[in-house]
Structure formats: structure tokens, C-alpha cells
Amino acid sequence: MTTNTAVQRSQNLPKRRLESIGECPAKRKSSWGILTSQGSWADRSPLHEAASQGRLLSLKTLLSQGYNVDTLTIDQVTPLHEACLGDHVGCARILLEAGANVNATTIDGVTPLFNACSRGSAACAELLLEYGAKAQWESCLPSPTHEAASRGHSECLEVLISWGIDVDQDLPHLGTPLYVACVSQQIHCIRKLLYAGMSLLK
């Protein structure tokens, strides 16, 4: 089955409402760790700031001064969420080595791995998985796989596939990763999923 055939078939499927980050209001984005500029949250700690800006020395200094590595904002965003969203692999490694919760979730269930896949940071995704990040959840939490597929981050998708994800995972509110990739016309991701054995019958 060719890539073009897969895209054509997707166009005949019932339309589903995709909950992409770009469609969400600012308040919801903030809980997902998307708004990371200064002033996004009044309760962001210096640790969040250092992680979001990739300042390794500041991060090490703050941790040595006793800052909690899993310090939370009101929306339960951790410094690790920030580091991964910013593609700051060095900061993410420091936080993980200090004991950061690799599967920490925001109030909307977003994990650091989701943020890494949203940003397109394959390096952060690989690091998180090495530290035990859960790639897929049974409940309908934001899916790193679907996020990577919808945004065209094929390198992140390749990392997830190499760690044995279920490429046929079908979420009620999103569909399968292949469906999402087809709707978003992400050809490279479609190819990755087809080569990984994604079913066209889902």
C-alpha cells in the first residue's frame, strides 16, 4: 500500500475532532507547559526559569542550594517539563540525575515525553525513555505518539517506535497515529508508521 493511498483512504474516514495544541486557548496551553516565556505563571520557580532557558550552571547551583527537583507550578508543571519543551537535553539530564519524576503529569495529564515530542526533541525523548518514561498510557491522556505524528516530528516517532510502542493505538478523541498523520499530511510520519507495520484497517 502506497503512502498516497493511505492519505486518500484517510480522507474517506469519518472526521474526528483533533485536539491539537495550536487550537487550545492560552489558559489550557499554560497547563501543558507550552507558555514558557517570563510571566506565563506567577508561581514559576527559579528552577523552572533555568530549565526553560537551558541554563545548566544556574540549574546545578539551584539544586545544590536545596531546590526541590520536582517543584510544581499551580498547574503541576515541573522543571523537567520545561527543559524538554525547550529541547534542553543537558538540563533534562541534570534533573533526571537529581531524581526528577520522569512521568510527572500536569493537571491535563501532559508528561515531559509529550512536551519533547511536541517540540520535536528526539534527543530528549530518547533520554526520557532511557530513564523509564512511559510512552503510552491506557487512559486518554495526551499521547506523545499522536503528537509527534500530527506535528511531523518523524525522528521522535522513530524513537518511540524503536522502544516498542503500539503503532495501532486508537484513541477515542484522536484515532490512530496513522489517521492523525494523514489528516495533518505528514508524509514522513506516514511512511514511518507504515514501515513499522501500522494497520490500514484501523
Task: Summarize the entry for a quick read.
The protein has helices spanning 3-11, 26-31, 46-53, 56-64, 79-85, 89-97, 112-119, 122-130, 144-151, 154-162, 177-183, 187-195.
Any overview of this molecule?
- It comes from Pavo cristatus (Indian peafowl).
- Keywords: ANK repeat, Repeat, Ubl conjugation pathway.
- It holds the Pfam family Ank_2.
- Belongs to the ankyrin SOCS box (ASB) family.
- InterPro entries: Ankyrin-SOCS_box_domain (IPR051573), Ankyrin_rpt (IPR002110), Ankyrin_rpt-contain_sf (IPR036770).
- The chain is mainly α and 202 residues long.
- It has two domains: 1-16 and 137-202, Serine Threonine Protein Phosphatase 5, Tetratricopeptide repeat, CATH 1.25.40.20; 19-134, Serine Threonine Protein Phosphatase 5, Tetratricopeptide repeat, CATH 1.25.40.20.
- 49% of the residues lie in helices and 0% in strands.
- It is elongated, with a radius of gyration of 17 Å.
Write the layout of secondary structure elements.
Elements: H1 3-11, H2 26-31, H3 46-53, H4 56-64, H5 79-85, H6 89-97, H7 112-119, H8 122-130, H9 144-151, H10 154-162, H11 177-183, H12 187-195
Just give the CATH class of the largest domain: Mainly Alpha
Order of helices and strands: HHHHHHHHHHHH
The secondary structure category is mainly alpha
Approximate shape = elongated
